[in-house]
Please model this.
Amino acid sequence: MRIGVCPGSFDPVTNGHVDIFLRASKMFDLVIVAVFHNPNKKPLFTMEERVEMLNLAAKDIANIKVDSFSGLLYDYVLQQNSNFIVRGLRALSDFEYEFQRALLIKKIVPEIETIFMMTSNEYSFVSSSGIKELAKFGGPITGLVPECLEEKITKRIREQS
Ligand code: ADP
Model:
């Protein structure tokens, strides 16, 4: 079984992420969306909330499983019996970081391939941080995040501001 892992913070999940999940789901038998617990970041949404929101966002994609992990990504990927990391690319600025990270993982675990998917045109400007900034100042996030999560995301961001 071919398994792809889509790791990220997903704080919160956006339509740009969902677009990558959907496209990855056509390439793999199973896509594991893995929320990374980053001890250096203070997320807006708890790990449990992010997992719950991802489950709702991906509910129509049959071959997706949502999980969470901490520690080394390549250890997690191997534990899941996968050899593939799927990452999205939006801009040249993403490339620099992703390029280094992919090569580092390749050096440590040569059997793991990092696969990059170019963002879809309509989501190239969508990021979790952009959504948070927009909603904080009362801007509309319609069409940028899954419809079923729009209210929850807007409410939380405004409460925290
Ligand atoms: P991280 O903190 O690991 O960058 P993110 O939650 O910001 O995690 O993003 C997870 C993955 O989704 C990354 O590979 C990122 O490049 C990709 N991604 C985020 N937004 C978009 C988008 N609008 N289009 C395509 N890929 C995206």
